[in-house]
Amino acid sequence: MEKDINLRLLDAISFENVTLVEQLLEQGADVWLRDEKGRSPLHFACSRGNLEIVKLLLQNGHAWNAIDNEECTAGEYAKHKGHNLVYELLLEEGCRAELILGLLNSKAEKDDEPSNIDYLSQSLKYSQDGTKLLDYENNGVMMGWEKPLMDRHAEVICFREGLDILNVGFGLGLIDTAFQKYKPRSHTIIEAHPDVYQFMMDRGWNNKPGVKIIYGRWQDVTDQLGATNAFFHDVYCRIAEMHLTSVGLQTEYIEIPIDPSNDKIWEGIKRRYWTLDTYRLPKCQLMLEI
């Protein structure tokens, strides 16, 4: 009986029978059902683009971030079919859920930061040509293909020469090198990882005019100074925009087309950390200045 009602739920979603979907959910149909491809009821509803059925599923406990066997979200199904209202609804649901989760976890995160500590205690290494920064498992931390993106960041940020620059995290030094082209009045770099800090010192960054290097986590050292999935990417860009708005900043995302699909870029890398074909560069301004 349970199997029958679940299959009837998928059929009702496919035929966009809102009344029947609601009845089956009330009778206990399983919103966690998956077909052989890992598709959930939400995937089917998003593919059809039925806003009311999507709302019903979410109201009955369906996860907004469900993925199929190919790691494709229901939101991506909606976007690929051009169902923009459904996609926007899922973005809002994702933001709401993540903001609530963030509030619940904020105290725990203050008391326990193992991932940060683990990262700083792990060895990092640079390739001989200086174009790759890898962790101990050969996962890419930063790579040379990101240089055009960092150059564009610097171009957007440095609207004139003589600015005061603060950068958290050096990596390969891509954006800091780009900043130097705009002759900043001061250029402060905060870096917490010992291997990266040593790389900076070996490259003579501590001797560059106007450059000040602060060794430590930004959370700990700011008092010395006088922040792969397209659907998830959109959700967290929206959340970032909401947080920035709350502190008086208006955010505009500049979309930059990129192609990280070339296998040669990732040669020797265990796992690709970027697969999207669009990079969203955040440009923030104080609302008082607009």
Automatic annotation (TrEMBL):
PROSITE patterns in UniProt: ANK_REP_REGION, ANK_REPEAT
InterPro entries to which the protein is assigned, alphabetical: Ankyrin_rpt, Ankyrin_rpt-contain_sf, RMT2/GAMT_Mtase, SAM-dependent_MTases_sf
ANK repeat coordinates: 37-69
GO cellular component: cytoplasm; nucleus
Domain of life: Eukaryota
Name this polypeptide is given: Protein arginine N-methyltransferase 2
Gene3D superfamilies: Ankyrin repeat-containing domain (1.25.40.20), Vaccinia Virus protein VP39 (3.40.50.150)
Listed GO biological process terms: methylation
Taxonomic source organism: Rhizophagus clarus
Keywords noted in UniProt: ANK repeat, Methyltransferase, Transferase
Gene Ontology MF term list: protein arginine N5-methyltransferase activity
